[in-house]
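[User] I wish I could look at a protein chain and see how it folds. I have put the entry right below:
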Amino acid sequence: GLEEGAKNQFSTFSNFITTINQKKEGIGNRNSPTQLVIPNIKNGRDLPPLCLDVRQKQRMSMDALPQELKAPIPPEPSLPIRTKTVKDFQDDMEKSKASGDWKAVHNFYSTTFDSFLEINAAFKKDTNSPFNTIEDSGIDAKFVNVVYDALLNTPQDVQKSVLKGIINGLLQEWTGPRTKDDLRAYCILLQNPQFSNTSTYVIYAHLLRQIAALTEADHHFLVHWSKKISQKRFKQVVDRLLQFISLRLFPAKPEEFPPMVKCTWWIPSATKVLALFNAANSLISPPIISYTDFYNSTLDHIDLMEEYHNWQCYGNSHRFSFCQYPFIISIAAKKVIIQRDSEQQMISIARQSLVDKVSRRQKPDMNMLFLNVKVRRTHLVSDSLDELARKKADLKKKLKVTFVGEAGLDMGGLTKEWFLLLIRQIFHPDYGMFTYHKDSQCHWFSSFKCDNYSEFRLVGALMGLAVYNSITLDIRFPPCCYKKLLSPPIVPCDHNTLVGICGVTLDDLFQIMPELAHGLSELLSYEGNVEEDFYSTFQVFQEEFGVIKSYNLKPNGDKIPVTNRNRKEYVQLYVDFLLNRSIYKQFAAFYYGFHSVCASYALLLLRPEEVEILVCGSPELDMSALQRSTQYEGYQKTDLTIRYFWDVVLGFSLDLQKKLLHFATGSDRVPVGGMADLNFKISKSETSTNWLPVAHTCFNQLCLPPYKNKKELKQKLIIGISNAEGFGLE
């Protein structure tokens, strides 16, 4: 950005902003539809929505429009002739730096940015070509990058001239639809590095407002043009927009900005422009930047539940909410929303149970406020499934687990232990519900047909209970599973509607069955005669209980040969069969089970990757981070026993580190917020050093006797964490 000392030099721009209002008053009687302050829009909350209500799961697809504009293309005005090349500009810069005479450079910048036409004259690759397609913006990206890279190294009067020119362009009186030259100018101006400085935010805000108010067809072009921007520049624009939103929410110097009441449209405009870049990012595989780069952690500190309730109440109406644009909300913030939404549902269900009991003049019982699951360790799966099937009406109550014959009280630790052991048994190959694929190290649904799919429903409910009760599970499903789980994210009212069906590709199959996917990929790239050499038809063969069965991928598929011409269709149908059709009943039961517990609009905020993180946590263990966030009771972090402990733990293998985490917390997974979210505590145990360490998994607490040396501590700790199953009371 610009130097801090230069801030005062930009104060004169308040005069230019004043001209915006003067200009508006001067032309107010003309009812121009395109003046800087867009008419009929009182503030940013009234701007036209960039996309449809996400609660209907009908978000606007930026690539759904045809490649040509649906509206008539307005004629492009003739551009001035500008012949300066990248080399000419670089030569001028070198001469100016050497001589101190910046006149030529000043003239170039002041002329180039004086209007949208001049911007196109300078940066359009060919001024005689219309460039009216989404495939090519016609922008000379190299020239734009060179000019912007040099801009911040020029004198302040040069930089000021650029901002003056941008104001002139924004004040232009539009007489009709925007031309492609106008869109090109917007695309170029968004990349201006000057907008990283807060002193330019008033101008930046008006630029964002105009872009946000463009038509859907114009947004379509900007999205496709933006995906051609280099990764470095793309991320810079995204970071600039995120910073703009953060500083408007929490300004370091509030006096730098107009009062919030006068610029409520700033944040909605910036968020809508950011949505264009998010759409562009999603059009490319792999994406230009990670979806996490769109997170704005500043939003973690606002009233998220108010945002969520506004969104629930008003949807995508004129009332702005960040929940309309969930890509900007971090996974940590979404977890908070889901937790609080779950807590409110739990309280509501428990209150209703209490009211029902009292209305029938029955004595209230504390147990009625919980989902009480009582199981025997020797019959863990059957007891658990029976309990959940029997207590469907209580699934949305707070979960409490009791192991028969054990004195442990469930303050959270027994629940975690129950989930861990149950998942381990259900996913065992001998149980037959899921198939483990060694190549991808993940589980997938068994396609074997059966009479009753209720067990899959109960497994789905189990996974929903984990999310609902903020428990992380050691489940190894491929990403495709979570995509199917959100298809759709809200259970449809019509029970005839298909659920758990999503668009799948060869990439999805690679994540489950890489060897088979590789073979299909080879088929697609085969240069010989596919029909004669492969001799395949549109059929799939599967072994079920020792019997080979065939399934047609399309009607009469057994009579349709696979050829060079139709092999793409064959591969797509094959993948769809394996990941959708062949397991439809199993996955549908699983889907309904999950949503029977997690029926919440909050799921609409999540990407499939985020659902996976909520369910599974992170497998990445960072014991150094755990050491930094650990609290102590009876010990100081400098005590010899504590130093021995961390020397031993940091030297453990990954397997032993996971065992320690499971021993102390009841789970070997890291929650969404990282190790710091565990609130791990080490307490001094006043027992004999002959005793093993003890853990209170309900509180993520490890009780450690003051062992005399590192060898003894390591020996006792390994014995303790390697033989940790079962609970008792002290």
In short: The longest strand covers residues 370-375. The chain is about 45% helix and 5% strand. Residues 1-71 have pLDDT under 50 and may be disordered.
